[in-house]
Design goal:
The protein has one helix and 15 strands, in the order αβββββββββββββββ. With 288 residues, the chain is mostly beta strands. It has a single domain, classed as Porin. The strands form two sheets. Strands 1-3-4-5-6-11-12-15 form an eight-stranded antiparallel beta barrel. It has a two-stranded antiparallel sheet with strand order 13-14.
């Protein structure tokens, strides 16, 4: 429901900005009141999180773009909003990883302690985020054709796509049956030693993002109606977008013991919070 509401609000915002542009060209006085901009950005666009155990994480180079609308209250202050799309990434790796959990119903014959160890685990995540910024903008002239600007506020984002490419590495698994006091390592029952697991690509569930947003730079007048904006920006996620953390990287399935179900580290308790971080350079074409 939240996803549909967000997309509806985004559509209405696009329509309203287009209408504002038509009004802005209707008279000379409105030209300085309403501004429409098209922009692109690039820099470090990462999923920031920590993993427990012998793990390493890293960010990713990303890019984005969007359409913006600014309502100028006066020559100095304005309110900026719009719609933008950004592409984020992250990487996680474990030299070695061991874990275990109880499988089946307690007291039944299929109840046992499933243990696994993975060597050379690697995972890459890619996220597409649709965002709506709401920012206050300050600008002041530097020369006749150049203005300095500074914007600050918030961005509200919804992940429209999130996927993880998982390379599990080699696996060693076993099953400890307490009622028999014995540990099995029979391959046909999914208990293997040094088995190379195939790569998989899974969907990742992430939640709504609220980010603190800052942008600063210069605007260069190219003509009476067009300006070029060049600046730097920083968006820092205030909340964790992790929505699932109760799964295991490797799941046993009794219906097909020789095939395991894989989950992203972002869906496990190994991950401590996930914040979005975006910083880089932004270039705008501004229509006044």
């Amino acid at each position: 429901m939240m996803r549909h509401t967000f997309l509806l609000m985004t559509g209405l915002l696009i329509i309203s900005t287009a209408a504002a542009q038509r009004r802005g060209y209707s008279s000379r006085s409105a030209l300085s009141t309403h501004e429409i901009s098209l922009y692109g950005s690039g820099g470090l666009s990462s999923l920031n999180y920590r993993l427990s155990g012998d793990a390493t994480t890293s960010g990713s180079i990303g890019f984005g773009g969007g359409i913006g609308y600014t309502y100028n209250i006066n020559a100095v202050w304005g309110i900026a909003t719009g719609v933008e799309i950004g592409f984020f990434g992250g990487k996680a790796a474990y030299g070695s990883l061991s874990d275990g959990y109880e499988y089946g119903t307690t007291g039944s014959e299929d109840h046992f302690l499933f243990r696994y160890s993975l060597g050379g685990y690697e995972e890459k995540q890619r996220v597409t985020l649709l965002s709506v910024p709401v920012m206050a903008q300050f600008k002041t002239p530097v020369s006749r054709s150049v203005h300095f600007y500074l914007s600050g506020g918030f961005k509200f984002g919804l992940p429209v796509s999130a996927k993880a490419t998982i390379s599990p590495g080699t696996a060693t698994t076993s099953g400890e049956f307490s009622y028999e006091q014995v540990t099995y390592d029979v391959e046909k029952y999914g208990f293997v030693t040094g088995l190379r697991l195939a790569d998989t690509k899974n969907d990742v569930d992430l939640g709504f993002s609220t980010a603190l947003a800052v942008e600063t730079g210069f605007r260069f007048s190219l003509s009476h109606r067009i300006a070029l904006g060049v600046g730097a920006y920083l968006d820092y996620g205030l909340n964790s977008v992790q929505s699932v953390n109760d799964r295991h990287i490797l799941d046993y399935q009794i219906a097909d013991p020789s095939t395991f179900i894989h989950h992203s580290v972002l869906h496990t308790a190994l991950t401590d919070k996930i914040h979005l971080f975006d910083a880089g350079v932004k270039i705008r074409i501004i229509f006044r």
